[in-house]
Request: fold
Amino acid sequence: MSHSVAVFLFTSALFFGMVLLLEIGRRIGIRRLRDDPGAGGEGIGAVDGAVFAVLGLLIAFTFSGASARFDARRQLIVEETNNIGTAYLRLDVLSAEARAALRESFRAYLDARLEAYRRYPDVKAVREGFGRANEISAQIWRQAVEAVRSENALPTAAMLLLPALNAMIDITTTRSMALQMHPPTVVFVMLFGLALAASLLAGYGMTGNKFRSRFHMLGFALVMATAIFVILDIEYPRRGLIRVDEFDQALVDLRESMNRDAPGR
Reply:
């Protein structure tokens, strides 16, 4: 089952649960009024307001955090593209032979990185792809260290090339960790629980009307379920409908530019 389908089914269950609790809350309120027609509602509005305020704040913070992480992940793609491009250009400080070998390794490395991201959400295949990319990056580092020590390399080769390679390798860890950064599970549990509790309270508060308003009941549940669906989807931008894949085009363009330096072109 894909992530989008799982999130849709989960939020659909939340939607129907909220509608059910709205109706249950309304019936509880009607029964209370029947048993005690003179019962007042003092203090109830304050409780309702507090619960809805907490729910609104929680939705706002989780959405804001998800959006910020989404933008950060897109920015990291741009940063990795810049780091690889910079390191690739600095290969010019090496001898022609060493430069040609390293350029070929760079092409293989970038191909492995792109292929790993294309395999989402197959976690096993993604790990295999990243493992292959890590092996190639270690090979690139060994080749570069050997090349900057050769007599044909420029005196400043080590100072120019090795820091660029280090940045290119380090960004992979940053990107990997960024994909795993999510709010604690308890935050989502609290969000779902508050949504259901708010539905019960909202249904109880609708007992002042003689007839139920299905439009408002369905509208409230739909808005809440949609907001939570978007939050969950944007938290996992490699698996859902809202994705960062289009930013991978920057890496694809960089890979195509490397083809111009390939032998026979």
